[in-house]
Amino acid sequence: MTFALAACGGGGAGSGDEATEPAGNGGDTAASGDQTIGVAMPTQTSERWIADGEAVQSQLEEAGYTVDLQFANDDIPTQTQQIDQMILQEVDLLIIASIDGTALTSQLDAAGAAGIPVIAYDRLINGSENVDFYVTFDNYNVGVQQATSLLVGLGLLNQDGSENPDAPEGPFNIEVFAGSPDDNNAGFFFNGAMDTLKPFLDDGTLVVTSGQTDFDTVATLRWSQEAAQRRMEDLLTSTYGGGREELHGVLSPFDGISRGIITALQGAGYGPTIEEGMPVVTGQDAEIASVALIDQGVQFSTIFKDTRKLATESVRAAEAFLEGNEPEANDTDTYDNGVKVVPSYLLESDIVYADNITELLVDSGYYTAEQVEQGS
């Protein structure tokens, strides 16, 4: 039950000084109806990635392309085999949302040798010169928004980010969770959030009671809800007396992690709602299950990253490459994959609170009011 998460220049894959033809099957300029685009998504266990895959496929097909869409069930060997097969089948372009941003070097080498452009989708692929473009959200700012929403929930800031003149003094006890260490975006989220929280931590307004604040300690492999629940349960036992000590807020980078945290908190006697003692818990991806919890006053916030817009930018980039052009980038400095700075297109995200669910998610057609009410 999970929606939306991800993290940039040079010429096309495998390009050299002598390359003068458009990339993709030796520079073939056939009409879109004769071209196939391989789309590799990480998993179908997350609501968000199912929506991404469907949005990319539908928009590409509307543009006249044939689409080979594959989901890898969060298994790295499966994803590498799927991409290998796409290359063997001579797709004209690849759109890849990687499971592990460091595990696809040989596949990208093969794509580069075949003249197949590669667009990294939402997650940067590291360690390869054959990443031609990156489409994502402003991931550092997503972390800023997550931390901002935590501060809003604690009463320290207003929703517009301004200081609340009537803010309580604190101190507030919080805990911090981060995303998967093999996902390049997780570091951007974490850094944006921690930079935003730092002044409040430095002056003692916020206290991470467990002392666990470094990324490696608080990271959650594969963004696992179950792993997050176990860690939260351990923290409650070791640091909060099994729920007898007060915990005011939890920085969570993803809605699945948030739901694991909330399950642990409810099991320790917190809540069931924020008004009844549930700590402020943040999130990301506006998954419908978490949006319903926000509507019910259980989870405080999430970050909405409209996957329809991300799909649109992916299609625009794909069309540009296949027409022999360079896609428009709005960031050519930030996303260094260890070999090159990958030209990128960054989209903006929004903070979802209970009072703007209708405006952001229902009025935009992303969900229906019935889905929000039912949580599915």
UniProtKB/TrEMBL annotation:
Tell me a GO cellular component: outer membrane-bounded periplasmic space
- Subcellular localization, as worded in the UniProt entry: Cell envelope
Which residue intervals make up region (Disordered)?
Answer: 8-35
Residues of the Periplasmic binding protein domain: 37-325
State the organism of origin.
Georgenia satyanarayanai
Higher taxonomy? Bacteria, Bacillati, Actinomycetota, Actinomycetes, Micrococcales
Q: Name one GO molecular function term.
A: carbohydrate binding
InterPro entries associated with the record? Bact_Solute-Bind_Prot2 (IPR050555), ChvE-like (IPR049784), Peripla_BP_I (IPR028082), SBP_2_dom (IPR025997)
| The protein, known as | Monosaccharide ABC transporter substrate-binding protein, CUT2 family
The record, for Pfam families, names: Peripla_BP_4 (PF13407)
